[in-house]
Amino acid sequence: QVQLVESGGGMVQPGGSLRLSCAASGFTFGSYDMSWVRQAPGKGPEWVSAIKPGGGRTYYADSVKGRFTITRDNAKNTLYLQMNNLKPEDTALYHCVRERGREYSGTYYSEYDYWGQGTQVTVSS
Questions:
Q1: Could you tell me if 94 and 86 are in contact, meaning their C-beta atoms sit under 8 angstroms apart?
Q2: What is the DSSP track for 51-112?
C-alpha cells in the first residue's frame, strides 16, 4: 500500500531554516509528480510546491517562492523541502502528497490522492 512518512519538522526562530523529508513506498515513486501541502491551525490545506518525476520542473506558491526549494531523490524514494528564511506564517503541519494534478501554462493545478500524517513546523521567537 502507498505510504508517505514525513520527518524533519520542529521549532525554529524567524529567519531560520529546516529541511523536511518524505520517505515514499508502495508505488513507483519516480513515475509521479509529488507535492508538499501545509495546513495551519484553523485553516484549510494550502498547496506549497510540486515537482515533476524527473526533478527538472518545480512549482511554488507565491507565499514561499524564493525561500523554499523542493527536490527529490528517486533512487532513495525520498522527497525533500528545504525551507529558508522561515516566517511565523509558515507555521503549519506539512504533508507530503502524491499528485494526480498537472501543469498548465506554467501553473500547477494540484489534485492529490495520497498524503502522509505530516510533520509540524513552528516558527516563533
A1: no
A2: E-TTSS-EEE-TTTTTTEEEEEETTTTEEEEEE-S--GGG-EEEEEEEE--EEETTEEE--E
Element (H, E) at 123: strand 119-123
Q: How confident is the model at residue 113 (pLDDT cuts 50, 70, 90)?
A: very high
Query: Which amino acid, 123?
Result: V
DSSP state letter for 27? S
E strand intervals along 14-63: 18-25, 34-39, 45-51, 58-60
CA–CA separation, 89 and 64 (whole Å): 10
pLDDT tens digits along 29-67: 999 999 999 999 999 999 999 999 999 999 999 999 999
Q: Whose grid coordinates read 503549519?
A: 92
| Calpha distance 75→44 (Å, rounded) | 33
What is the rounded distance in angstroms from the CA atom of residue 68 to the CA atom of residue 3?
24
